Amino acid sequence: MAYILALNPLIIGTAADKNGKLLNGAPKFLDAAGKTLNEAAIDQNKMMVLAATALIAGIMTILMGVWGRFPLGIAAGLGINSLLAYSVAPTMTWPQAMGLVVWEGVLIFLFVITGVREAIFRSVPRSLRAAISVGIGMFVAFVGLVDSGVIRAGSGTPVQLGIAGSLEGWPIAMCVIGFLLVVILQIRKVPGSMLITIVTVSVLSVIVESIAKLGPRVGDDNPTGWAQNVPKLPSASSFSWPDLSLVGKVDLVGGFLKDGHFNIATFVGVLLVVFSLMLADFFDTVGTVVAIGNQAGLNDAQGNPPHLKEILMVDSLSAVAGGLGSASSATGFVESSAGVGEGARTGLASVTTGLAFLVAMFVSPVITMIPSEAAAPMLVFVGFLMMAQVRDIDWTDIAEGVPAFLTVIFMPFAYSITVGIGAGFIVYCITKLVTGKARLVHPLLWVVSALFVVYFAQGLLLGLL
């Protein structure tokens, strides 16, 4: 999960709001034309975001271990932080955007304490739960392949293998070595195989970079460079006391107003944004918890994990904490399956992960030197582990198989867990309706599917407003 400490600062730490300001309030550009980056402010902002991200992740993951008693790590969700940075913040200020995250968490919290969220969770049929697990595995594997550069945007095709169909460069070689190493160690049943692989590949990458001076891969420039972090040993001067100034920098009201005044179109539009954030957060967690519980063998005969209400309670509070901490909505991480793969079965794993996040506040330069090529093989292997749930889907029944199939393929193809779940839910209701089995669909599933229709049509609805 440590990669989020590098990625979250790169996403919300470098994006500007409608006023051209960063999260720390500094302008992103030094000139009015927007051509000269305020590099010092951006670097400072990224370190502040990293500190806030680690703090929230540490506290909430420990809470998941103590209260939820489940091996699930909590940190800023990649989908929601991208939505904030590239869709929400450009329409308002950063404090207002974080205020919407708080409200989204409050709504989910209300759903939990009233039992609505747990009821929705239990209304999902077994075939779709299995499909969610498989789809997330495909999604995670695809993320790993893209992050490492093994799969890239194609020339004339949406994607392609490596550089013009060829695997070239030391970074991709590190990824291939890492994948083969983790497979071999897993076959040999070596404890801690994933961590051993990450450390080994990171050390090799540092050695390669010190000799070859490859540098970063930026767009189409330097295609054989490192995809994200350049693996270099940190200098002593890069270590400093964490700056937590972003914590509490939230505006809970301003986002619903237009120029400080109430406007019905603005208010409804922002409600749809909150609704979008809520759905993304809500069902990402549903899919993740089911997948982790399945892999760990903790779910009951109906596919429900233990301590479900406590798990969902902590997750909803994590969204609130993420907004208050200016770290974006925090949610359960499917990468927790890597811990389960190493034997994690109780909340002690989450407590340990949470403590590691708190330590990371002080050793962030060490965390950020790990290249994505060292972490990507773990994601691909985790995808393999989660594929095992495909056996729980009845592929001979079209009414069951098609919704499951759409759930699986839309997650990687649309690059969204939420989209995959939404597509599966909607089509499941339709197939049961046309086969005369509508009564077998839980009433809550009909409601949720209707909400997903609104979610998919939000652009049209906003245009009508």
Span of the ends, CA to CA: 40 Å
Element-by-element helix/strand order: HHEHHHHEEHHEEHHEHHHHHHHH
Mean pLDDT: 87
- Class per helix and strand makeup: mainly alpha
Strand count: 6
What ranges have pLDDT less than 50 throughout 5 or more consecutive residues? Answer: none
Number of helices: 18
Profile the largest sheet.
Answer: 2 strands, antiparallel
Provide the gyration radius in Å.
Answer: 22 Å
The percent range for strand residues is under 5%
What helical percentage do the residues reach?
A: 55-70%
Shape: globular
Strand arrangement, largest sheet?
1-6
Describe this structure in words.
By secondary structure, the protein is mainly α. Helix content is 61%, strand content 3%. It has 18 helices and six strands. The radius of gyration is 22 Å and the shape is globular. The chain starts with a helix and ends with a helix. The model has no long low-confidence stretch (mean pLDDT 87).
Provide a concise account of the structure shown.
With 465 residues, this protein is mainly alpha-helical.
List the helices and strands and how they pair.
Blueprint: H1 4-11, H2 39-68, E1 74-76, H3 78-88, H4 94-113, H5 116-123, H6 126-148, E2 151-153, E3 159-161, H7 170-187, H8 193-212, E4 257-258, E5 261-262, H9 264-296, H10 308-324, E6 330-332, H11 336-341, H12 347-360, H13 364-367, H14 372-386, H15 398-413, H16 417-434, H17 443-456, H18 458-464
Antiparallel strand pairs: 1-6, 2-3, 4-5
Helix pairs in contact: 1-2, 1-3, 2-10, 2-12, 3-9, 4-9, 4-10, 6-9, 6-14, 6-15, 6-16, 7-8, 7-14, 8-14, 9-10, 9-16, 15-16, 16-17
